[in-house]
Amino acid sequence: MSKRIKISACYIVKNEAENLKTSLESLRGQVDEIILVDTGSVDDTVKVAKSFGAKIFHETWQDDFSAPRNVALGKASGDWIIFIDADEYFTPDTSKNIRTVIEKISSLNVNGLMIYRVNVDVNDGNKILDATYILRIFKNLRGLSYVGKIHEELRLNGKVLLGLVPIPKNFLTLYHTGYSSSVNRAKAERNLKLLLTELEGDEPQRVYGYIAQCYNGLENYVQAEKFAKLDIESGVKKSTFDSSSYRILLDILARNNRLDERKHFAERAIKDFPMLPDFYAELAECHAAQNNFEGAALMMSVALDKFKVYDGVETSIFNDELAKVAAQRINFWLNKIAESLK
Q1: What is the pLDDT of residues 119-174, one digit of tens each?
Q2: Which domains, from first to last, does the chain contain?
Q3: What is the DSSP string of 25-81?
């Protein structure tokens, strides 16, 4: 009889009582221990955690998210670790699959699971903002540690953790409320302060894209463009969010009518992310702006084809609604072509 796999759930928290209750409830019956590192809560966060049987540890906050994460890793005794944020929770229809998925995957040569995470705005009726795959479950391997003061990344003996596989969203899905409109600006300001300190470290290129996101959220588009370009030129690959800098840059270029640059970077984005439908649609609009309606219709058709089959881990904002708009755009351009032939 095979040994039962032990699963640890880990959290770092501060004043997250309401969110934490929802998150812990989604893990009920699926984990064997809960490790919670509190960095200075003054609300009922610790009380809530204790009600779920969590082991509580206290660490002074030092403007470094990796530090308490690594404390939690050191306390976890499970064979596998689920490390999620207090404002994340597994959906009711998939939470019951957590242990089954881990047990089935544990016999394979896999080190971590990329989980489908949906960002929702609780201030706008749980409106879906976007979705992507993100590392949230992994083997408890010797030598694991987080690096980076913010947007921290899991490393194995200092190197990027390999052996990651995406889990289909119908098996496991996380909801994340941390990007709701009421907290977005404050979070961007906090994140930017920490990220800028890392520019003086050994890996400044690691944070270029994250800095671009912060400046974009704060509507400082000059700096957002600067760091988006730095990120693209660095060629640094993360486990996800790699296309974000292209998205930010292309939006800025479009709003400023810088068509030649927009087309150039849309073409580069397609080379870097050939399976994403988003950038084919972007290039289609560039062709249309140059009255190249044949090229526009062709590229948008490719975007629709990619959309029908895309199932990658990189974020795509090309959804069903945009697909309908894309089809309308194609018909409009085809009519333009037909008119020119009369």
Answers
A1: 888 777 778 878 889 999 999 999 999 999 998 999 999 998 999 999 999 999 99
A2: 7-176 (3.90.550.10), 181-340 (1.25.40.10)
A3: HTTTTT-SEEEEEESS--SSHHHHHHHTTPEEEE----S-SHHHHHHHHHH--SSEE
